[in-house]
Design a protein that fits this description.
Glutathione S-transferase Yfyf (Class Pi), Chain A, domain 2, globular, mainly alpha, four-stranded mixed beta sheet
């Protein structure tokens, strides 16, 4: 039986060898070789471009943050709450920075990420923690441990739960009908090409997370309950936890921006009609840290 198998295998290889010497075989070999060379060339070209970009970023200056993020939105500085959170933090801390949109996702595939003094860091929370230590607590905070605990709980509520409802509404329920026009022209073109695959992938993600298993009414029950909780925590204070803003305010402002301006017109209407405290807070933060808001939007 083994001899038969070896003989059979030899016959197959003989036939393949003969076919390879035909016109069709040679044409296929040339095509595969050209594809391989193209792939290698593109990799080398991409590596060279990445190297050139990093050389350019290294010239930003000592302690200057290069903030890598998605392009500006048409109605807000960034449609990523985490990018907007980090940029707001940089402004609150008076840390000098420049924006790069050529490479919005870092080595971990996350946006935003930063380059500072030749070092690359990703994840908005890890970045903020690093910068807080590097610049020796640039945002003065006089918070009690209990206030820190409350601030962290509020931030997690918004960053990890409320935003999933916003994303569910943006991309699945509304099928991007509203949010597509909030992106830059470049991203609008990009999404129109990849939309079927993007939506299909996102549906699987929100189903695994859990929010995708609920109706729109049920999902917004969660979001509106969290907005009420946020307003209750804020009370009559000008900022989340005290009379002066803290690091947590960067996250709250970024998430509220997505709810107000990056979810749907009916959601913005609901918040403006039912949460005057949150609307006032958002306007206060925007006036204080984003006086150039209009200039930080895409055309």
């Amino acid at each position: 039986m083994a001899c038969v198998e070896r003989a059979g295998g030899g016959a197959v290889w003989t036939e393949l060898s003969r076919w390879a010497n035909t016109t069709a075989g040679r044409r296929l070999a040339k095509t595969l070789l050209a594809a391989a060379l193209l792939g290698v060339g593109l990799k080398l070209w991409d590596r060279r471009r990445r190297h050139q970009r990093r050389q350019r970023w290294s010239q930003a200056g000592k302690d200057v943050v290069v903030l890598h993020q998605f392009e500006r939105g048409t109605n807000m500085p960034n449609l990523s709450p985490f990018a907007l959170k980090l940029e707001t933090f940089l402004r609150m801390a008076n840390i000098q920075y420049v924006v790069d949109t050529e490479e919005p996702q870092g080595a971990r595939g996350k946006c935003p990420w930063i380059t500072i003094n030749g070092q690359e860091l990703s994840d908005s929370e890890l970045i903020m923690d690093y910068l807080t230590k590097h610049f020796n607590n640039p945002i003065p905070e006089q918070l009690t441990p209990a206030q820190h605990g409350l601030g962290r709980a509020v931030q997690v509520m918004l960053d990890e739960h409320a935003i999933t409802v916003v994303g569910y509404k943006r991309y699945i329920i509304d099928d991007m009908s509203y949010i597509i026009n909030c992106y830059s022209k470049t991203y609008q073109s990009y999404f129109r090409v990849i939309k079927p695959l993007f939506i299909s992938t996102l549906k699987k993600i929100v189903h695994v997370i859990g929010i995708g298993r609920f109706s729109e009414e049920e999902a917004f029950f969660f979001l509106y309950r969290e907005l009420r909780a946020l307003e209750d925590v804020m009370g009559d204070k000008p900022f989340l936890l005290a009379d002066a803003p803290s690091t947590y305010d960067a996250a709250v402002f970024a998430e509220l921006t997505q709810v107000l301006l990056g979810c749907a017109p009916e959601v913005e209407r609901y918040v403006r009609e039912n949460h005057a405290v949150l609307v006032g807070y958002h306007e206060r933060m925007k006036a204080k840290y984003w006086p150039d808001w209009q200039q930080c939007r895409a055309d």
